[in-house]
Amino acid sequence: MSPATDDYIKPMPWTTADIVNATKGDLLLGNIKSTFSGISIDSRSISADELFVAIRGNIYDGFSFAGDVIRKGVCGLLINREKASSLPHEKWRKKKVVCIAVKDTTKALGDLALFNRKRADVSVVAITGSNGKTSTKDMTAAVIARKFCTLSTEGNLNNEIGLPLTLLRLCGRHEWAVLELGMNSPGEIGRLADICLPDIGVITNISHAHLEGLGSIEGIMRAKGELLEKIRPDGTAILNADDRRAVDLANKTSSDVLFYGLSNRAAVRAESVIDKECGVSFTLILPSETVSINLGVFGNFMVSNALAAAAVGYLLGLSALEIKAGLEDFKPAHGRMNILMISRAHIIDDTYNANPDSMKAAIMTFKSLKGKNRGAIIAGDMFELGEYAEPMHKEIGSLFAKSDIAKLYITGEFAESVAAGAREEDNLLDIFTGTREEILEDLTDWLMPGDWILIKGSRAMGMEKIVEGLKSHTKIN
C-alpha cells in the first residue's frame, strides 16, 4: 500500500462548476470558478474552505446553521431550493458567498458522492446483509489493503448520508473502496448502489432484521437482492453458500457468482474450525491454495465473515498468505463480541446491535466460551421487528433459558415477553427485569470471579452503559 503523505490523504478539490454539474443545481450567488477543498454537512467542524451542504435531518435542518457557517468564514453553501427566498442576498454577495440551490440536499449529497466516485476511478466492493456487515467490511478492507490503496466505511456509516460521506473522502491515490450498505425499507439498497456503482457485491446473509419496514423475510430477501441488480456488467456477486436465500438470489442474477461458506459448493470455504482461548482457527480452502487462519475474535459466525473477505481477496488476485495476513490483522469494532476481564469475570460486550439471528449466534458463542462456568445474560430489546416483535422476543427468551445460565437480566419494552419465553422453558431460572441502573446494581452484587456475562441489545437500548458501569464499579465479590 502506498505510504500516507499529505497529498495522499487530501480529498480531491471541487470547483463550483463541478458542484453544479454533479447536482444539476442552480447557482444563486457567487463565482462559477470558485474552489473548495471538500464537502461537509457538519457546521461544528467545517473548515472555511469547504462547501456546506445543508441537510434536513429528523431533528435539525442544516439550513438553520447557514448563518453560523458564513460567520465562521465558510464561503459556499448548498441549500434546498425552497429556502432561496429567505437568503440575505446582498449581504452574502458582498462576502462573495457561493450558494447553489437544489430540490433535495440529501439527494444532492449522493449526487456529489457519485461524481466523486466516478472521477476517482476506483473499484468498489459493496457489502450488505442482515448480520455481519460491519465485521465483513472491516475484514475485507484489511485483506485488500495488503495489496491495494483502500478506503473503507468508517464505523457503520451505511445509509443515504453515511455512504456519500465515505465516497467524498476518496482521493486520487485510492484503488479500491469497501463500502457497507444498510437499509430498513425497500429501495434503499438500490439507491445506495446507484451512488457507489459496485464492481463486487457481497451479501453476508438474509435473516430476520428490519421486519417492521420490510414486512416479511421474503421482503428482506428482495431488498438485499437489489444490490445484485446494480453490480456493473463485468462485476461479480459474492454470496454465502450456507444461506439458502442467498443461494436462491444467485439463480436470479446475471452477474458471475463466487460462493463462500462451509458448504462443499463453496469455492472459498473453511474446514477444521476450532474455538480457542484467543479466538477461532480454521483452514482456509481457496480454489488453488490452502492456508491456516487464526482469527483473534470469537464466534463461528466470524468465520463466515472472514470467508466473505477471503473471497474478495481471492477475486482480486491476492495470495493465500496475503489474505491470511489481512484476516489475522483484523480487530473487532467496539461493542462487537469484545471480551473484557473485570475483577476476574469475563464480560462479552456485544452491545452494538441486535436482531433475532445475531442474538442466536451470540448465545451459541457465549455458551461455548463459558463452558461449565457460571453465566448470566443481560438482554435489551431488539428493534424494528414490527408485528413479529412479541413472538420473537419470546422465542429468544426460550433460547436464553436453554443456554445453561444461572441468571437472566432483561430490560426494555419487551422484557416480559422475553421472561415469558424463558419461564416456559425453565420456570426455576432466576430472572431479573428492570432498568439498566437496577440491573447494574443487582449484577455487581451477584457477580463473582470466573463468571461469564453476555450483554446485548439493539443500538438504541444503550446496553453499553452497563458495560461502562461494570468497568467503573469496584464492588464485585
Describe this structure in words.
The protein has 477 residues and is an alpha/beta fold. It is built from 18 helices and 22 strands. The protein has helices at residues 6-9, 16-23, 66-71, 89-94, 105-120, 133-144, 162-167, 188-196, 211-214, 217-230, 244-250, 300-315, 320-329, 356-370, 389-401, 415-425, 436-446, 464-472, and strands at 14-15, 26-29, 35-36, 38-40, 50-53, 76-80, 98-102, 123-128, 150-152, 176-180, 200-203, 236-240, 256-261, 268-276, 279-285, 290-295, 338-342, 345-350, 375-379, 407-410, 430-433, 452-456. The strands form four sheets. The chain has a nine-stranded mixed beta sheet, sandwiched between helices. A six-stranded mixed beta sheet has the order 17-18-22-19-20-21, with helices on both faces. It has a five-stranded mixed beta sheet with strand order 2-7-6-5-4. Helix 6 (133-144) crosses helix 13 (320-329). It is globular, with a radius of gyration of 24 Å. The model is unreliable at 1-7 (pLDDT under 50).
Number of helices: 18
CATH class of the largest domain: Alpha Beta
Q: Determine the N-to-C terminus distance.
A: 50 Å
Numbering strands along the chain, what is their spatial order in the largest sheet?
9-10-8-11-12-13-14-15-16
Sheet bearing the most strands, described?
Answer: 9 strands, mixed
Using only C-alpha atoms, the radius of gyration works out to: 24 Å
